[in-house]
User: Fold this.
Amino acid sequence: MSTSKLTLNLVEGSISFDFTPEAAKKLQSAIAELIQQLKSAAAKTAAGTSGKPTPQKPTEYQYIGDVFLEVFCNPNIWPSPFAAKLLITLRDERIRITTEAELTRVYDDINQYLDQV
Assistant:
């Protein structure tokens, strides 16, 4: 299983770690599905659909390799994909980082990574 560095641009700064193309494709798919959920909810709100919106399942992604990566987003609290943020946890036996990143920025980072590998 080959790995190369994935760089995620955060709100402030960035983080790079070893990641496989297969894992990147799975994360890309999970984020694309989340974006569609958010677009659909935003379209219903813009159309003025009455009633309480249907709660959506949160997106949770985990990768275990050289590092443990967890990506979480509750789509019920964001009005659109452009406003949404992901909670990212990255850890190994020496360090743990938990931070937020913009959904669309992470999606672009993953696409760029996949274009390069």
The chain has two helices and six strands. The chain has a mean pLDDT of 92. The radius of gyration is 15 Å. The CA atoms of residues 87 and 100 lie 5 Å apart.
